[in-house]
Design goal:
CATH class of the largest domain in chain B: Mainly Alpha
Radius of gyration of chain B: 19 Å
Strand content of chain A: 25-35%
Largest sheet of chain A: 13 strands, mixed
Largest sheet of chain B: 2 strands, antiparallel
Shape of chain A: flat
Structural class of chain A: alpha+beta
Helix content of chain B: 55-70%
Number of strands of chain B: 3
Helix content of chain A: 25-40%
Distance between the termini of chain A: 56 Å
CATH class of the largest domain in chain A: Mainly Beta
Shape of chain B: elongated
CATH topology of the largest domain in chain B: Rna Polymerase Sigma Factor, Chain: A
Number of domains of chain A: 4
CATH topology of the largest domain in chain A: Jelly Rolls
Structural class of chain B: mainly alpha
Number of domains of chain B: 2
Strand content of chain B: under 5%
CATH superfamily of the largest domain in chain B: RNA polymerase sigma factor, region 2, helix turn helix motif
Distance between the termini of chain B: 32 Å
Largest interface: A-B, 51 and 63 residues
CATH architecture of the largest domain in chain B: Orthogonal Bundle
Radius of gyration of chain A: 27 Å
Order of helices and strands of chain B: EEHHHHEHHHHH
Order of helices and strands of chain A: HHHHEHHEEEEEEEEEEEEEEHEHEHEE
Number of helices of chain A: 9
Strand order of the largest sheet of chain B: 1-2
Number of helices of chain B: 9
Oligomer: heterodimer
């Protein structure tokens, strides 16, 4: 393997061997790269970013619809017999039209079934999805995330094995979509016209923001996590409610880097912090994570600002603890571990906030 | 060794189908079509937005394969041959329609491609930003450099194959690639040094 020690994510993006590993992985490449990564653990983040870039950067796809493509291939094949056979094969020539006739029948039947069931769904056989005529249903059966643009300008990134139903046009007072599975929403901001996502027994209400919803039928938990803005989440009773008669009592408000988990068994909403909190400060407003003899209370305040997550600590006891630390390029939890260790404190995540417990360092 | 895939089949398998199709096996000819059609359509579209024209050109390419199958080499990978043949044909068709319809689009034959990172959802905002920067730089390249970058990285062809398709010398392929990346790197370094320092240690 060549020397990748000084490769940036952007260098990896154009490296043949790296691209091949990402796009057409095989056992041998996998083993090689994994052993390289275990020898160079500090490159893991760069490689992760580069992997995303390789998958993302490419020609804008404009594929031919499946049916048109098959038709085009079929019409080329129809000419096959017009050309002299170097090694004629009578049996195959005989069989071929039958085969294509059958294939066409199967295609038509499949299309018919899909159409029939899609229609059934949208006309209200499945009570979980709204029953109106102008509803659209998008099911992502592929392996990649599917981008769906809604009439109000909002964008939904639908995960594989997930389904979204939404109207062609939203009503003037509210916007309602139904989700089964997972999706990331970027909701166009429209005050006075809230956006509702119904997902199983979770209802998420927002004005304009971006957030993830995860509600797969076969999983015991459903969750909503926020990237930007604020959203309100509430549990829906089992009875089929529409958003008109929806009780918003018991709504829990969450903010960036917080998430709501709903355990289906207990129908209990728990507010917590996303597993990997991200900085909420835009990159051009960099935060200095180098602390030199700074009171630990200042460090907590900096972290609170950087991640938008409330950190609760006793100001009085903590302001006398000076800490020198470089916290750049660490995750929130690593930063908290380091800082708390330094002042012999501990922390817990309670109700979407971080609560620090420590005796302080005594007056000096 | 090159072991990239064409569609979901390995290059080796496609060459097998190519060989069998030339020998007159209909089922293999169908497999060959299925393995290469999307790639050809994608490439053809970069020369003409006229879907029907592209589809017709692809059909002509394959009919020509059938016509000439006694003389074609079954042992070489078919992709460069098919793409080169499609490119030639589209140029010819483009000229003909221009001649028939003088008011038609001027740039019918210019290689037009748009790179983007929108179809794959990048989770982190920073990385999404980087991907957008890279694609906008790629989009700013001159047409021929774009075509080389496209064939090299997104059709996964090597230098000699690209030379054959674009009908230029292999050395010119290297030069075009080098110029493209030199420019991208320069822009990258001057335009967003801050982002660079933030993201790539």
């Amino acid at each position: 393997m060549k020397d990748y020690q000084n490769f940036s994510a952007e260098d990896f993006l154009w490296d043949d061997a790296f691209r091949r590993w990402v796009l057409h992985p095989n056992a041998q490449d996998n083993a090689q790269w994994e052993s390289w990564l275990s020898q160079n653990p500090e490159k893991a983040a760069t490689v992760d970013r580069a992997r995303e870039l390789v998958k993302a950067v490419g020609p804008t796809p404009a594929p031919l619809p499946e049916a048109e493509r098959n038709h085009a291939i079929g019409s080329i094949l129809n000419h096959f017999d017009e050309y002299p056979q170097p090694a004629p094969n009578q049996k195959q020539v005989w069989f071929a039209p039958t085969f294509w006739f059958r294939a066409a029948c199967i295609c038509l039947l499949t299309i018919g079934f899909v159409w029939f069931f899609a229609k059934q769904r949208s006309s209200g056989v499945n009570g979980d999805l709204l029953a109106t005529k102008d509803m659209r249903i998008v099911a992502n059966t592929g392996k990649a995330v599917l981008r769906v643009k809604l009439s109000d300008g909002s964008v939904v990134y639908l995960s594989p094995d997930s389904k979204l139903s939404y109207p062609d046009h939203f009503s003037s007072t509210k916007r309602t979509v139904h989700l089964s599975g997972g999706a990331f929403f970027e909701v166009a901001r429209q005050p006075g016209r809230p956006f509702y996502v119904f997902a199983g027994s979770l209802v998420t209400k927002v004005l304009g923001t971006s957030f993830h919803v995860r509600s797969f039928d076969n999983e015991s938990n459903a969750s909503v996590s926020v990237k930007t803005g604020r959203v309100a989440v509430f549990a829906r009773e089992k009875s089929p409610l529409t958003s008109d008669e929806l009780s918003e009592r018991g709504a829990v408000v969450i903010e960036p880097n917080q998430q709501i988990v709903l355990a289906h068994e207990t129908v209990k909403l728990t507010k917590t912090i996303v597993p990997d909190p991200e900085l909420i400060i835009p990159p051009d407003e960099a935060i200095d994570f180098n602390f030199n003899d700074s009171p630990v209370s200042d460090i907590f305040k900096t972290l609170q600002k950087a991640y938008g997550i409330e950190i609760i600590f006793d100001e009085k006891t903590m302001k006398h603890c000076p800490v020198t630390a470089t916290l750049t390029d660490l995750s929130l939890y690593e930063q908290l571990d380091l800082v708390c260790n330094a002042v012999r404190a501990s922390y817990e995540v309670i109700d979407g906030r971080i609560v620090v417990d420590g005796k302080g360092c005594g007056e000096m | 060794m090159k072991t990239f895939n064409v569609g979901s089949l390995s290059e080796n398998e496609v060459t097998q189908y190519w060989k069998a199709a030339l020998a007159g096996d209909r089922a293999s000819f169908r497999k060959l079509l299925e393995a290469t059609y999307d790639l050809m359509y994608q490439y053809g579209q970069k020369f003409s937005r006229d879907q029907e024209l592209v589809k017709d050109a692809i059909q002509d390419v394959f009919l020509e394969v059938l016509e000439k199958r006694a003389t074609l080499n079954g042992d070489i990978p078919p992709k460069p041959y098919l793409l080169a043949s499609l490119r030639r044909r589209l140029h010819r068709l483009g000229h003909r329609s221009n001649w028939l319809l003088p008011t038609g689009e001027e740039h019918e034959n210019e290689f037009e491609i748009e790179f983007s990172s929108e179809h794959y959802f990048i989770i982190s905002e920073e990385n999404r930003h980087v991907a957008q920067q890279i694609t906008s730089l790629m989009n700013a390249l001159p047409a021929r450099q774009k075509e080389v970058v496209y064939l090299r990285f997104f059709q996964e062809l090597d230098r000699d194959e690209i030379a054959e398709i674009m009908h230029i010398r292999p050395q010119s392929v290297s030069n075009l690639l080098q110029t493209a990346f030199k420019w991208i790197r320069e822009q990258w370094k001057t335009a967003i040094p801050f982002l660079l320092s933030l993201l790539f240690q």
